[in-house]
Every structure is written in C-alpha cells, then in structure tokens.
Amino acid sequence: MAAEVNDSSFDELVLKSEKPVMVDFWAEWCGPCRMIAPFIEELSNEYSDKALVLKCNVDDSPAVAARYGIRNIPTVLYFKGGEIVDKQVGAVQKNAYAAKLDGLL
Asked: Of 51, 56, 63, 90, whose CB neighbour count within 10 A is largest?
C-alpha cells in the first residue's frame, strides 16, 4: 500500500529522500483520484526498491498542498534530490505515471 505523507512528514520523507519520489495529491471526495488509486498502489509495489510512491490527502495536509500550488486533483509531483522535476495534473493511464517515474531512475 502506498504510504501517506502529510504536513509534518513531507520534508523528511520527500525532500530528504535519496530515491526519486512520486507524490499523489488526492482527496476522498475526488472521483478521478479514486479512479487512479489502484494505479498508485500498483506502482508503489512495483517500484518499492527503486523509488518512493506516496499519497498526500490535500484535505488533511493543506500546508503542503498550498506550498506546491496544488489547485486541481489528482496532481502527481515527481521529486528527485528534493526538487520537483516533473508533474502530472489530472487522471491518466498507469503507463503515463510509470514512464515519468522511469525517467527519474
């Protein structure tokens, strides 16, 4: 299962990670977020040894969402070395998320 990250754990888990990190910004009430949730879970398992795949609930972590200007969900941010290196706004197929993650490895 993809681990949750929040306002208090974000810097430690995402910005200080030595592995590339994919963060899915979502909310329970968001239909497209629920649609991609299985993809996120699968990617979390498939990339567990190479990258971190995390979920951040924007309702529970408004500070992180505001810091990164998350206005539409789902938004997936890709981090490497503590910096945003790619972004996907809106729901897409699993292979699109995987391709962006592969580009960071």
From this structure: 56
| The two three-digit tokens of residue 19, written as one number | 């592995």
The number of residues in the chain equals 105
Interstrand relation of 21-26 and 75-80 (parallel, antiparallel or unpaired): antiparallel
* Tokens standing for residue 47: 């990339």
CATH number of the domain that residue 86 is part of = 3.40.30.10
User: What pTM was computed for the model?
Assistant: 0.96
Residue from 21, 22, 23, 30 carrying the catalytic annotation = 30
Per-residue model confidence as pLDDT tens digits over 2-26:
899 999 999 999 999 999 999 999 9
Asked whether the beta carbons of 26 and 35 are under 8 A apart, the reply is: no
Of 5, 33, 70, 77, which is the active-site residue? 33
Total number of domains in the chain:
1
* Catalytic site includes residue 56: no
Provide the residue range defining the domain that includes 43.
3-102
